[in-house]
Amino acid sequence: MSQSLATQCNELKERYDTCFLKWYSEKYLRGIGTAENNECQDLFKEYNKCLKVALKERGIDKLLEEAREDNKENDAVYFGNKK
Amino acid sequence: MKVFSNAETFNYSWEEVSTANWRKYCPWNEKSTHVVAVDTISRSMDEATGILRTERLITCKQSAPDWLKSLLGGAMEESQVLETSYVDLANKTVTMVSANLTFSNLINVQETVVYKPLNEHQTQFTQDAKITALCGGWQRIKNSIEDTLVKRFRENAIKGKEGFETVLAMSRRVFAEEREREKMSLIRDQASNIRMAAA
User: Fold this and answer.
1) Could you tell me which residue ranges the PRELI/MSF1 domain spans (chain B) (predicted)?
2) Does some domain include residue A2?
């Protein structure tokens, strides 16, 4: 797997990525993956907690907020229309 | 604004490509070394459509030409890109929209990548990037900045294809080995059950 931008989050990231890849290939792609039966949720929370601190330290959190604002149109295109 | 477009065919199923896409920038990919980190910052699945939406923060390290560095103020060593992807299982489409976070007040890079199946064994990759230099000043400088980035996109696209091919080949091998291991352990379990029943 690839590295995290924050080395202290690498281990948590690796655990989450491994879990997700398994879920994706064995459940999601077979059409049996739902938001409820996602066993990787807790691992994601731990990884995300670590990452959030690192993003804040580097000031990336603010850049992300701005970019997300611009992304709303994309969500409408790739999500909204298909609902 | 300058546009970079590219299309490739991968001789792997859409399922294989969409899975390997999550580890495109792992150590198996020895070509795309400009990507130094990939972090998932959010992931959710839409119940109604089944679309899986993921936000990833891609950290790149690639040195810019000296003239561009001095124009942007030096530290262009590390830059971040926000990639938002939508996996639509029902329509077998992966769409990835990426925008630069770093220097977004000077340069705007919007990239869209789509993976769609051509048939059961082949997947089509299309890439479109719109590059716009926003800084005020001479059109000539803006053009040079845009041209430099288009050139960079072209170089990275060639390396990206080569690197992803390696990741796809490795993924197929690892999945096959895993299936083999599972089969073997199933056989072992059955054999030991039979032995226990006989004892």
Assistant:
1) 1-176
2) no
| Count: domains in chain B | 1
pLDDT of B74 reads 59
Angle between helices A41-57 and A60-78 (to 10 degrees): 130
| Distances, alpha carbon B177 to alpha carbons A54, B116, B184, in Å | 36, 26, 10
Q: Which residues of A touch B175 (CB under 8 A)?
A: 25
**Residue B34 domain boundaries:** 2-198
For residues B77 and A21, which has the higher predicted lDDT (pLDDT)? A21
Which ipTM was obtained for this model? 0.91
Whether A47 is in a domain gets the answer yes
CATH of residue B53's domain is: 3.30.530.20
Alpha-carbon separation of residue B157 from A69, B43, B107, B134, B138 (angstroms): 28, 26, 19, 24, 29
Give percent above pLDDT 90 in chain B. Answer: 46
For chains A and B, count residue pairs whose Cβ atoms are closer than 8 Å. 109
Based on DSSP, count helices (H) and strands (E) in chain B, helices before strands.
Answer: 3, 7
Q: Which long-range contacts (CB under 8 A, 24 or more apart) does A73-77 make?
A: A74/B84, A74/B97, A75/B53, A75/B84
Confirm whether A51 is domain-assigned.
yes
Residues of chain B positioned with their CB less than 8 A from the CB of A79: 46, 49, 51, 53, 86
Name the nearest CA neighbour of A57 among A4, A6, A2, A15: A6
- For B37, the closest of A3, A29, A31 (CB atoms) is A3
Domain tally, chain A: 1
User: What is the residue range of A56's domain?
Assistant: 7-82
**Residue A81 pLDDT > 60:** no
pLDDT 10s digits, B84-104: 999 999 999 999 999 998 888
Q: Per-residue pLDDT averaged across A47-58, rounded? A: 95
The three-class DSSP label of residue B199 is: coil
